[in-house]
Structures are given as structure tokens and as C-alpha cells.
Amino acid sequence: MRIFIFKSDTNPGLQAFSDDQGGGKLPKQFRPWHAIGVIRPEAPPPHNLNRGVIEASIAKAGFQLWRMKKEKKASRG
């Protein structure tokens, strides 16, 4: 399965995976969505995300939302 990667313009940091190249299956409340990449069937998803979980979510809901965790700032001691 080719997986398309999208970024929400209305919710900074929110991204999504979908099998729909146009993004029509993505949640409307976070539109507009912009395509930012594609994952080929033989390629791993970014950031060590689990491809099986992504594909299962896409099969069930048509998409999977994801967000990068904010990095904690190192404390100075």
C-alpha cells in the first residue's frame, strides 16, 4: 500500500497518513490538509512508526493521525 503523508494547516504539528492521495478521507475539522510526502510499499514509515498499525488504522477509518512529541529542554543544574 502506498501511504500518503499530510500536514494540517489549522492544527500545527498534526499530521496524518491516508491511502487517499487527495486527502478526502481526512478529518474535516483540521482542514486544509497539505500532502507532504508518500511512503512506498517497500519503505518504512518515518520516525520508526509501525507500518502495520498505520495500515490497520487506514483500513478501518481511512486515515491515522499523528503528532511528534515535543522535545523536553535539558535542565541546567
Structural account:
With 77 residues, the protein is α+β, with helices and mostly antiparallel strands. The chain has one domain (3-67). The chain is built from 1 helix and 4 strands. The chain has one helix spanning 51-61; strands spanning 3-8, 14-18, 33-39, 63-67. Strands 3-1-2-4 form a 4-stranded antiparallel β-sheet. The longest helix has 11 residues, at 51-61. 14% of the residues are buried. The mean pLDDT is 92.
Please state how the strands of the largest beta sheet are arranged side by side: 3-1-2-4
Distance between the termini: 48 Å
Give the tally of structural domains: 1
What letter string, H or E per element, gives the SSE order? EEEHE
Principal-axes geometry comes out as globular
Beta percentage is: 25-35%
DSSP strand tally: 4
Oligomer status: single chain
Gyration radius (Cα, Å) is 14 Å
Helical fraction: 10-25%
The parts where pLDDT drops under 50 for at least 5 residues are none
Output the structural class: alpha+beta
Helical stretch tally = 1
Major beta sheet summary: 4 strands, antiparallel
Overall pLDDT: 92
